[in-house]
Design a protein that fits this description.
By secondary structure, this protein is mainly beta. Among the domains are: 42-97, no CATH class; 338-381, no CATH class. The protein contains 4 helices and 18 strands. Strands 1, 2, 5, 6, 7, 8, 9, 12, 13, 14, 15, 16, 17 and 18 form a 14-stranded antiparallel sheet that branches. It has a two-stranded antiparallel ribbon with strand order 3-4. Strands 10-11 form a two-stranded antiparallel sheet. The longest helix has 8 residues, at 351-358. The protein starts with a strand and ends with a strand.
Length: 381
């Protein structure tokens, strides 16, 4: 076995701009050679299936039935009185599936243009904006015939072509040591001053969709006005005929999944207690806009949902976590702002029963103190 190698090249142009802003642009390439894959050693020639079709499913007497002893001939095959003809046409039918792992020979090609604008924390704020445009293709088997003869084909990867990341942190300019209201008395400064907020935005274009074996007219199924109910033109595809090889492409240019984006936010404040001790208040919001992002569509041509997105890909409802140092932790999970907070434990009624009886979603809150004893409430939204 030859050792897999990744040859990488990158060219970067960097420049320092005004106000401590740094920018750079990079062209990056990765060429993978002799990467490992799993070789199936006991495959039947698929051309026999395409030639003789259902005839190979015929059951015949098993020549290995009760042959030798279980110690010399283990496995389930020796206990079957009959077996299909196709089962006997592999090179070593008595062994079933045989695989050689870490066989070398796979190639990978990855190219990317990356841009970044960054400002280190100074003057009360910092930010980072990064963008990546990439193209990737990998050695894969186009169909079972190619797998049988170990013939690889470069097939585009599934990763999104476009990715952007935006992060930033900002000290609100109010209170002691800040730009405004620097002379606040300690009580007001404890309320107004010392706040900091930070945010992280991640976004990317849709995944490159891959199609299984189907009958197609050869034209692109791309739609100009797609929707979650119709992500591509399903009329371009039909169910494949049995005992036929795959001939349709794995993917089509511009036929991608749904775009993805997510924003997480944090609000913090530090309360100075003593000279060497501070108490930090922190509110973390995951999926803070409470957005709903559709998952990739169903790609099974035999399904009634073919071409439709029916599930959610992001983390779901907005998730908020409040913490104050190691003293108190309060966790909220909600979709809408609550209107009232109900009874403390024991819950009455139980959350599931409450949701069923009222027909409205419930929101659970748990408070865990230093002793680990829980408390909570139901919030009617």
């Amino acid at each position: 076995m030859r050792t897999g190698v990744n040859d990488r090249w990158n060219v970067t142009l960097q420049r320092q701009l005004w106000n401590q802003i740094h920018t750079d642009v990079t062209f990056f390439m990765n060429f993978g050679h002799n990467l490992p894959y799993t070789l199936q050693e006991n495959l039947m020639d698929p051309n026999l299936t395409y030639t003789y079709k259902a005839a190979l499913d015929t059951a015949v007497p098993n020549p290995f039935y009760q042959i030798l002893t279980p110690q010399k001939f283990p496995g389930t095959l020796r206990n079957q009185r009959t077996v299909s003809i196709s089962r006997l046409l592999s090179p070593y039918p008595q062994y079933g599936a045989l695989a050689r792992q870490y066989r070398d020979g796979v190639l990978n090609r990855y190219k990317a243009v990356q841009a970044r604008v960054q400002r280190a924390f100074s003057g009360g704020y910092s930010f980072l904006v990064a963008y990546n445009y990439n193209q990737e293709k990998n050695y894969e088997f186009f169909n079972p015939i190619d797998q049988y003869i170990s013939k690889f084909t470069f097939i585009p990867g599934t990763m999104p072509r476009h990715r952007i990341s935006v992060a930033g942190s900002w000290d609100l300019p109010f209170g002691k040591g800040r730009q405004y209201l620097n002379g606040l008395n300690p009580v007001l400064n404890a309320i107004i001053g010392g706040w900091q907020t930070s945010h992280l935005l991640l976004a990317n274009s849709g995944n490159n969709l891959r199609f299984g074996q189907m009958i197609t007219d050869g034209s692109s199924p791309k739609l100009d006005n797609r929707s979650p109910d119709r992500m591509f033109d399903t009329s371009k595809f039909q169910r494949p005929e049995s005992y036929t090889p795959r001939m349709n492409p794995w993917s089509y240019a511009g036929v991608n999944g749904n775009k993805f984006w997510n924003l997480d936010s944090t609000l913090t404040k530090t309360f100075p207690i003593k000279e060497r001790f501070n108490l930090e208040f922190r509110l973390e919001m995951y999926n803070s806009p409470n957005g709903f992002i559709w998952n990739d569509p169903n790609m099974s041509v035999t399904s009634s949902l073919f071409g439709r997105s029916t599930t959610q890909v992001n983390r779901g409802a907005r998730d908020a976590v409040f913490s104050a140092a190691d003293v108190l932790t309060c966790r909220f999970a909600f979709r809408r702002r609550p209107a009232l907070c109900g009874l403390a434990p024991p819950f009455s009624p139980a959350p599931a029963a409450y949701s069923t009886l009222s027909g409205r979603p419930w929101i659970s809150t748990s408070i865990v103190g230093p002793s680990g004893n829980p408390a909570g409430c139901i919030m009617d939204s």
